[in-house]
């Protein structure tokens, strides 16, 4: 099998409105907006040749541009980050800012401690031509977290492809650890551009609606998801309490930890 080094572009979807944390992308994280901190982390990747922020609001775009980043305005009416990333990819292709063969990496806009090594690992999976979509996972550090619905679990087959994602403890006996232990899903995705377009055209699937996990749209429709596993633990920011913890972590250990 011939391996070909892929070219990749990161797109960070950022919606201004947030129910649990108002204007989340513009929240200050120790001297810079949250969205800028995420952009800074993505720029540490050695495999992304460019990174864009896709947003529904000019204020977010202005914050990114003011930090020397790239921003593109998208429609406000998107049901998921996947759909916003798909629109941004179409717009950037029309502008010739990305190539038709580029792998698109969907980077959450609320992960300021994202490990750039994970981004590089994910992109390298696309050296294999059969990989259409990929994501990240890590070993659980605390098996008690397996019971926490906010900590999404993924079970993979022996070839490293996802069997299922769930907010519930899976498989049966997952909390016991050992061979039954699931992986902690890290919500970064890579797609070949055609696969991204296919997903954006498909309706949300029944498991996706039940679990509130957009990646189940791919599995429901027979699109395999390859999983890059490593020590890629991160920390999402969804609530004011999360924001306080992120500030404390930033001040205590800095952005490189």
Describe this structure in words.
This protein has 257 residues and is an alpha/beta fold. The protein has one domain (8-253): Spore Coat Polysaccharide Biosynthesis Protein SpsA, Chain A. It contains eight helices and nine strands. It has helices at 34-42, 58-66, 81-94, 116-125, 193-201, 206-211, 216-220, 240-253, and strands spanning 8-14, 48-55, 70-73, 103-106, 133-139, 153-156, 162-166, 183-192, 226-229. Strands 1, 2, 3, 4, 5, 6, 7, 8 and 9 form a nine-stranded mixed beta sheet that branches. Helix 1 (34-42) links the parallel strand 1 (8-14) and strand 2. Helix 3 (81-94) packs across helix 5.
CATH hierarchy class name: Alpha Beta
How many β strands by DSSP?
Answer: 9
In percent, how helical is the residue content?
25-40%
How can the largest sheet be summarized? Answer: 9 strands, mixed
- Write the element-wise H/E pattern from the N-terminal end onward: EHEHEHEHEEEEHHHEH
What's the domain count?
1
Low-confidence stretches: none
By CATH, the superfamily comes out as Spore Coat Polysaccharide Biosynthesis Protein SpsA, Chain A
Gyration radius, rounded:
17 Å
Instruction: State the end-to-end distance.
Output: 37 Å
Content of β-strand:
15-25%
What shape does the CA trace take?
Answer: globular
Tell me the CATH topology: Spore Coat Polysaccharide Biosynthesis Protein SpsA, Chain A
Instruction: State mean pLDDT (0 to 100 scale).
Output: 92
Q: How large is the count of helical segments? A: 8
If classified by CATH, what would the architecture be? Alpha-Beta Complex
Class computed from helices, strands and strand pairing: alpha/beta
């Amino acid at each position: 099998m011939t391996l070909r080094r892929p070219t990749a572009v990161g797109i960070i979807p950022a919606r201004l409105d947030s129910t649990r944390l108002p204007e989340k992308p513009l929240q200050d994280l120790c001297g810079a907006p949250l969205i800028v901190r995420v952009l800074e982390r993505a720029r540490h990747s050695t495999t992304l040749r460019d990174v864009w922020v896709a947003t529904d609001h000019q204020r977010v775009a202005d914050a990114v541009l003011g930090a020397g980043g790239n921003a593109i305005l998208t429609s406000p009416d998107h049901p998921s980050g996947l759909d916003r990333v798909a629109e941004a990819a179409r717009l950037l292709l029309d502008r010739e800012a990305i190539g038709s063969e580029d792998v698109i990496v969907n980077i959450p806009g609320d992960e300021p401690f994202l490990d750039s090594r994970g981004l590089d690992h994910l992109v390298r999976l696309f050296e294999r031509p059969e990989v259409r979509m990929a994501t990240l996972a890590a070993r659980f550090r605390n098996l008690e977290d397996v019971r926490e619905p906010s900590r999404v679990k993924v079970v993979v087959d022996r070839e490293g492809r996802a069997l299922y994602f769930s907010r519930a403890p899976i498989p049966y006996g997952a909390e016991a650890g050992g061979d039954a232990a699931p992986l902690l899903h890290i919500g970064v995705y890579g797609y070949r551009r055609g696969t991204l377009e296919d997903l954006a055209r498909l309706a949300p699937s029944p498991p996706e609606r039940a679990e509130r996990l957009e990646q189940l749209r791919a599995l429901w429709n027979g699109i395999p998801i390859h999983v890059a596993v490593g020590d890629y633990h991160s920390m999402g920011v969804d609530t004011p309490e999360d924001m306080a913890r992120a500030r404390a972590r930033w001040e205590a250990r800095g952005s490189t930890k």
